[in-house]
């Protein structure tokens, strides 16, 4: 088994930005599991699959080939061979990912892929249930969080920079709704693993958080 670092936490806590930096400093592979759920969501949206229809969902998942690749060290998502990395960050996909990832059959589809990557490589994997369910034996587990205010302000800034029209209030409501869904679902809800270190990033810079995690990993190497 490679060395495994699990980073879980709610949307907008800075997981992917920080995980990317930490992985590059440690020379680990970064696995963004949210992107995998987003790829499934994109496929379901394209097919117009109703997630509440169990047999339609099962069939859609059977016909869907999800793979992960790397280009210059950056994770790429492949859906039936098509690189969809640039298409999975829309609000529509975010919402569908939050809804469909609550379905056990969707989670089962990704479990083997995630565990295989961790078995064969030194990985830093981020998501919601990595420390609790996917990699319960990870050597380092981090629960990365931040206040709703801090997360909404960050996402708002990001959207403004991209020129996407939205209000802070809308973003805040969206984050609260997603938090609620991710934390209250029956299957693999977002919770802190007992042996995870809690890192609250509300008042920390990206570099401070990165250094904290790199230090925790180096202590275990
Ligand atoms: O981290 P993200 O915003 O890209 O995740 C998209 C959605 O996928 C989010 O609503 C939660 C879900 N998700 C999950 O259920 N389990 C994971 N390991 C990663 C993401």
Description:
The chain has 221 residues and is an alpha/beta fold. The protein has a single domain (4-220), classed as P-loop containing nucleotide triphosphate hydrolases (Rossmann fold, 3-Layer(aba) Sandwich). Helices cover 52% and strands 17% of the residues. The chain has helices spanning 15-26, 33-47, 54-62, 91-100, 104-120, 130-134, 148-162, 168-184, 206-220, and strands spanning 4-8, 29-32, 66-71, 74-79, 82-83, 123-127, 140-145, 197-200. The strands form two sheets. It has a five-stranded parallel β-sheet, sandwiched between helices. The structure holds 2'-deoxycytidine-5'-monophosphate. 2'-deoxycytidine-5'-monophosphate binds at residues 11, 33-34, 37-38, 97-98, 101, 127-130, 178, 182.
Task: Fill in the keyword field for this structure.
52% helix, 221 residues, binds 2'-deoxycytidine-5'-monophosphate, 5-stranded parallel β-sheet, 3-stranded antiparallel β-sheet, Rossmann fold, alpha/beta, single chain, 17% strand
Count of separate structural domains: 1
Task: Report the bound ligands by name, code or SMILES.
Answer: 2'-deoxycytidine-5'-monophosphate
- CATH third-tier fold name: Rossmann fold
Calculate the mean pLDDT score and round it.
95
* CATH homologous superfamily caption: P-loop containing nucleotide triphosphate hydrolases
Structural class: alpha/beta
Using the coordinates above, name the CATH class: Alpha Beta
In short:
This protein is of the alpha/beta class. The protein contains nine helices and eight strands.
